[in-house]
Design a protein that fits this description.
Number of strands: 12
CATH class of the largest domain: Alpha Beta
CATH topology of the largest domain: 60s Ribosomal Protein L30, Chain: A
Helix content: 25-40%
Number of helices: 6
CATH superfamily of the largest domain: CofE-like
Number of domains: 2
Low-confidence stretches: none
Strand content: 25-35%
Distance between the termini: 44 Å
Largest sheet: 5 strands, mixed
Oligomer: single chain
Structural class: alpha+beta
Shape: globular
CATH architecture of the largest domain: 2-Layer Sandwich
Radius of gyration: 19 Å
Length: 251
């Protein structure tokens, strides 16, 4: 049996997304123009930012009135009080803060910087919030592709997170549809006869990270097609990847 091969294709030519834009339709059109039409079994990686734009999750800072808690947090972190207000609105709790660094748990359960509130790639004076339900967003894109083409694809909504104990950032899955987010090897036997006991790979995160290599942060490529990966079938979600507090040794 030959070695496995994977292809990751960045998808350019997409417009600056606005509320109401149909991501599935625009992606299909761009893929056709580029000569890489979607095929059954593809994994579509879509950045959170364009999903937030189409769902109206972009806020003008000028319209935000910070409360007392936000003003205190802004003094402690050096952040704009209006930005601090949005972070608090999007958070269940503050996990850690040190200088300008603010780690929170979002209402989805993700632990990340600033509750995922981001000022990049949205325009002057604007701020993007995470989609309210990224798993639902992923399913809507997947359904849109299926309705227009008949192709069954998986969809991963990606965002960039930092990591404890390691420098640098990587893309992870914040929304998943059409695939299980894990590849579970527990109970299988390796080539040396050892039974695997804890090997559950977060393949949705790995796919999101691979796609970032062709997307970049400055190139205007918010979507990637991953072809050739036999993803685990199932109906899992990104929420399944959030470790429950009772199993988390570091909360």
């Amino acid at each position: 049996m030959g070695a496995a091969e994977l292809r990751v294709v960045g998808l350019g030519g997409l417009p600056d997304m606005k509320p109401g834009h149909d991501i599935a339709a625009l992606v299909l059109e761009a893929a056709e123009r580029q000569g890489t039409p979607l095929e059954a079994g593809d994994v579509l990686i879509v950045t959170q930012k364009i999903v937030s734009k189409t769902e109206g999750r972009v806020v003008a800072l000028a319209e935000v009135e910070p409360g007392a808690e936000a003003r205190t947090l802004a003094e402690e972190t050096g952040k704009d009080p209006r930005l601090a207000e949005l972070i608090l609105r999007e958070s269940r709790r503050i996990v850690r803060k040190a200088g300008p660094v603010l780690i929170t748990e979002t209402r989805h359960g993700f632990v990340c910087a600033n509750a995922g509130v981001d000022v990049s790639n949205v325009g002057q004076g604007l701020v993007a919030l995470l989609p309210e339900d990224p798993d639902r967003s992923a399913e809507e894109i997947r359904s849109g592709v299926r309705e227009r083409t008949g192709c069954e694809v998986a969809v991963v909504i990606s965002d960039t997170f930092g990591r404890p104990w390691r420098e640098g950032h990587t893309n992870v899955a914040v929304g998943v549809a059409g695939m299980a987010p894990f590849a579970d090897y527990v109970g299988q036997v390796d080539p040396y006869g050892q039974e695997l006991r804890v090997s559950i790979l977060a393949v949705a995160d790995e796919l999101a990270a691979a796609a970032e290599l062709v997307m970049g942060k400055l190139s205007g490529v918010p979507v990637a097609i991953i072809r050739g990966y036999e993803y685990p079938k199932g109906s899992g979600t990104a929420r399944d990847m959030v470790r429950p507090p009772e199993r988390d040794l570091f909360r």
